[in-house]
Every structure is written in structure tokens, then in C-alpha cells.
């Protein structure tokens, strides 16, 4: 798995959500209603991932909006015995995927079915880094989950991601809603709060899946990353209206650039010292929303 900088490849950007519940599990909107909502909000694709079952998506796609099948699968084997939640993307059924299975078995079986796995909300699940290090074959983890953020303020799982990347695990960072349409007078709606922007040649199932496997996307709960350029000596990131632009690497490496006079930053440039294993870009706005690039492997430029 070699990551090309998605900002440097041909294609268009497509906005999507990888984690969606409907009335077929514990969501409050039917498949038709939730698809209509995301389409109206400017999204291009949506994975429907009800708990431990695959919701039928035939007939839900249209020329400009792709609906893909999946499921959120419960699995066993974590240290605290809370259980894993694994988002299985692009599976047609849950045959042979009982919640009694160990997480690695679930990942293997999903891949045998042609699907891919994202580890859902590690912080919410109270997973440990060991729980993630013992797994292989999953494409990424949810570094931001809107529903977990609005319900119990455990939406961000960035520390897990850096711990995995620093140990050489090539996993991508995903922002997803985990939408249930549950909200009240002190909790915002969990729809359309976290997404990924995928760079692909066209909006097809194969193209979206290939881009997800190759890391050709970035995650956001607000900002747009306009460009990431890899120069001979330095890396430049462009994202207007940023309060901070961070270049995050393993250990104590990397650098943060923050506006001192209140005027937003639109770009920042970082010169690696040469020992960084990976580098990822994080653009944060004054309102606290952020966009997160996938890691770049500096030895492979
Ligand atoms: Zn879950
Ligand atoms: Zn969920």
C-alpha cells in the first residue's frame, strides 16, 4: 500500500459519509429519507451501515448520487470486553458474520466477501492501542465520529491514529457521522457533521472503493484542504481561514503554525528534518473544526 498524494493525482473530489444508520437498525430515518437528506446537502455518496445487517440499497442511487451497501458489525476480543464496532464497507450480506466472532475473524471474512473494514469510534468503544495493534487487514479508523462527539464528547480518536502510524501501521483516517438522527435541545443533529473528500476519476463503486483502499481522500468536519504540495525540500499545505496548520509526524517531530494576530492563515510550509517516518496535515479553524489529510510516507516521495 503506497500512498500517492491525492492532491497531486488526476480526478474529481467526491464528498461522502461511510457510517449511516436507518430505521432498519437504531436510526430514526428510513433509507429513502436519509439518502434524500445527504443528497440535498451536497454529498456525492453514502454507505448505509446498519447494525449487523445489510440494508438493501438497490434503487437508492441516482445519476449523481451513489448509495453503497455495508454494515456495522459487533465483534469480540478487546481488552476491556466492551467489544469492537467494525464498519464493513461494500458487503452484500452478513452471512457468517456473527457478533460472537473475534474482530480479526470479522475483518478476514469481510475481505473474503470483497469488502473493507474501518474500525469505528475507538475512543467511544474504550479500545486500547493494543486492541488496534493486534488487528490487521483493515483500511482505517474513525478519527472523528459526529454521533460520538455530540452524545458523549468522545468523537476524536486522533491519538490512536498517530500511535499506529508511528509503529508503521498504514491505516487511513476517516471522519464519519454514524448518523442516527438522534438529537434534542442540547444535542445537535448527527447528520452531515463529519465526512471524507475522495479523489477519484469518476463516481462509481469501483472507483470509490479503490480510492478508499489507496488513501486518496482526506477527512473533515468543516474546512476544505485546497492543496498539499510536496517540494524537493519542503511540504506546503493550503487551507484558507485556518487558525492553525499543523504538520504532524511521529514522536516529537513535526511543527505547528498558528496565527498570532487573529488573521487567518491560508497556507504553511514545513521542511522535514529528514527523520520523519510519516507526515500528515491538519488544518484547524477558529471554530475548532478541522480537516485531516492522510499520512504521507516521506521515504517514498
Ligand atoms: Zn458503533
Ligand atoms: Zn454506528
Q: Mind explaining what this structure looks like?
A:
This protein is α+β, with helices and mostly antiparallel strands and 301 residues long. It folds into two domains: 6-219, Alpha-Beta Barrel (TIM Barrel), CATH 3.20.20; 227-300, Immunoglobulin-like (Sandwich). The protein is built from six helices and 17 strands. It has helices at residues 31-40, 103-112, 129-133, 146-152, 158-166, 205-214, and strands at residues 12-17, 45-48, 66-75, 84-89, 116-119, 140-145, 172-176, 195-200, 217-220, 227-230, 235-242, 244-249, 254-258, 265-270, 278-284, 290-293, 296-297. The mean pLDDT is 96. One zinc ion binds next to loops.
Instruction: Please report which band the strand proportion falls in: under 5%, 5-15%, 15-25%, 25-35%, 35-45% or over 45%.
Output: 25-35%
Separation of termini?
14 Å
CATH architecture classification of the largest domain: Alpha-Beta Barrel
Overall morphology: globular
Number of domains as seen in the coordinates: 2
The helix/strand series, from N terminus to C terminus, equals EHEEEHEHEHHEEHEEEEEEEEE
CATH topology of the largest domain: TIM Barrel
Give the cofactors and ligands.
zinc ion
Query: Which segments are poorly predicted (pLDDT under 50) over 5 or more consecutive residues?
Result: none
Question: What is the overall number of helices?
Answer: 6
Amino acid at each position: 500500500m503506497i500512498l500517492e498524494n491525492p492532491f497531486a493525482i488526476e480526478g474529481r473530489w467526491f464528498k461522502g459519509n461511510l457510517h449511516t444508520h436507518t430505521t432498519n437498525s437504531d436510526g430514526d430515518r428510513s433509507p429513502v429519507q436519509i439518502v434524500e437528506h445527504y443528497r440535498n446537502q451536497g454529498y456525492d455518496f453514502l454507505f448505509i451501515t446498519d447494525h449487523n445487517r445489510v440494508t438493501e440499497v438497490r434503487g437508492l442511487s441516482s445519476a449523481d448520487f451513489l448509495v453503497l451497501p455495508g454494515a456495522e458489525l459487533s465483534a469480540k476480543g478487546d481488552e476491556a470486553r466492551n467489544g469492537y464496532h467494525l464498519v464493513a464497507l461494500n458487503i452484500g450480506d452478513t452471512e457468517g458474520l456473527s457478533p460472537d466472532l473475534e474482530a480479526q475473524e470479522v475483518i478476514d471474512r469481510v475481505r473474503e466477501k470483497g469488502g473493507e473494514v474501518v474500525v469505528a469510534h475507538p475512543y467511544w468503544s474504550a479500545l486500547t492501542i493494543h486492541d488496534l495493534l493486534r488487528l490487521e487487514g483493515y483500511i482505517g479508523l474513525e478519527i472523528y465520529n459526529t454521533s460520538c462527539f455530540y452524545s458523549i464528547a468522545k468523537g476524536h480518536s486522533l491519538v490512536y491514529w498517530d500511535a499506529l502510524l508511528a509503529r508503521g501501521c498504514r491505516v487511513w483516517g476517516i471522519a464519519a457521522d454514524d448518523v442516527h438522527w438522534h438529537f434534542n435541545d442540547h444535542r445537535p443533529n448527527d447528520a452531515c457533521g463529519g465526512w471524507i473528500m475522495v479523489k477519484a476519476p469518476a463516481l462509481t463503486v469501483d472507483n470509490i472503493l479503490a480510492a478508499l483502499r489507496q488513501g486518496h481522500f482526506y477527512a473533515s468536519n468543516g474546512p476544505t484542504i485546497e492543496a498539499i504540495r510536496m517540494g524537493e525540500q519542503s511540504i506546503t499545505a493550503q487551507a484558507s481561514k485556518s487558525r492553525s496548520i499543523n504538520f504532524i509526524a511521529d514522536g516529537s517531530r513535526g511543527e505547528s503554525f498558528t496565527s498570532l494576530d487573529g488573521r487567518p492563515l491560508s497556507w504553511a510550509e514545513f521542511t522535514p528534518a529528514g527523520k520523519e517516518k510519516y507526515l500528515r496535515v491538519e488544518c484547524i479553524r477558529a471554530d475548532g473544526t478541522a480537516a485531516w489529510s492522510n499520512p504521507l510516507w516521506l521515504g517514498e516521495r
